[in-house]
């Protein structure tokens, strides 16, 4: 159909440059919900309806800040058991999605080369129903992940700018980009899944009052920073490919938006890392966290709030 052609590039040149004529990803195990998935219809749906995400963002902001004001005269809820279950669900989901996404990224790298990991995509990728399913789930998951903020507000933890800014912009970008099936998303989705699997596992342990070593929190925050650096690098590589006149399945507009987003994340995460782990609290005017309460930006201790 002509309407479908607008979403995809002809992969002949990309595959020829990679030294292969066929994308043929296979998995040792395919679950029914993965094998029965077809993303073509969803791509067209998102192309026509992605704008509804602005209503979601508006509702999110109204609920969060309205609830925050409502909680000002009320005692904080504990919600540790609920928070534990919430984080375990998101950790398991992210880990499984990360493993599935990593399998596909490694396959493309080994068979097509690094260039194809951020430029190879298009119609034949839809034949990979497993990869397509987890790309779709990643996009949808940015909506329920907004629930992180509800826990912060109900528990009366600090709600910092980085938290809600990150939530809102990731949601907007994921829904905006889905219908284009951009090749650079192969990296974005995989990295986000893997970092989230570690991050939500950490939160689950903290919800049970486990004393997680401070170096683990620092390592996860470092991984978040590395994710931002790699995200920016992938965009720059894709831009260079297109500037050289070669084929790469991502638009200039998408590259610019994504690069701006990743750069802003890096600056904000770096600022958090500095305040949380480098600078003496007295220099920032904040109270030092109690022993065993050092945390990631998401945890909400001291001057920190839950980020994503």
* Secondary-structure content class: mainly alpha
Order of helices and strands: HHHHHHHHHHHHHH
What is the count of helical runs?
14
The unreliable regions are 1-21, 288-295, 297-308
Tell me, rounded to a whole number, the average pLDDT. 85
Main sheet: strands, sense, barrel: none
**Percentage of residues in helical conformation:** 55-70%
Beta-strand segment tally = 0
Which strand-content bin applies to the residues? Answer: under 5%
Shape summary: globular
Radius of gyration: 20 Å
Set down the secondary structure blueprint:
Layout (H helix, E strand, L loop, with lengths): L1 H4 L6 H7 L13 H4 L4 H10 L3 H19 L8 H33 L1 H6 L9 H13 L5 H8 L6 H18 L6 H23 L6 H30 L8 H27 L2 H4 L24
Helix pairs in contact: 5-9, 5-10, 6-8, 6-11, 8-10, 10-13, 11-12, 12-13
Question: What does this protein look like?
Answer:
The chain is mostly helical. The protein is built from 14 helices and no strands. It has helices at 2-5, 12-18, 32-35, 40-49, 53-71, 80-112, 114-119, 129-141, 147-154, 161-178, 185-207, 214-243, 252-278, 281-284. Helix 5 runs antiparallel to helix 10 (161-178) and helix 11 (185-207) runs antiparallel to helix 12 (214-243). It is globular, with a radius of gyration of 20 Å. The relative contact order is 0.14. Mean pLDDT is 85; it is low at 1-21, 288-295 and 297-308.
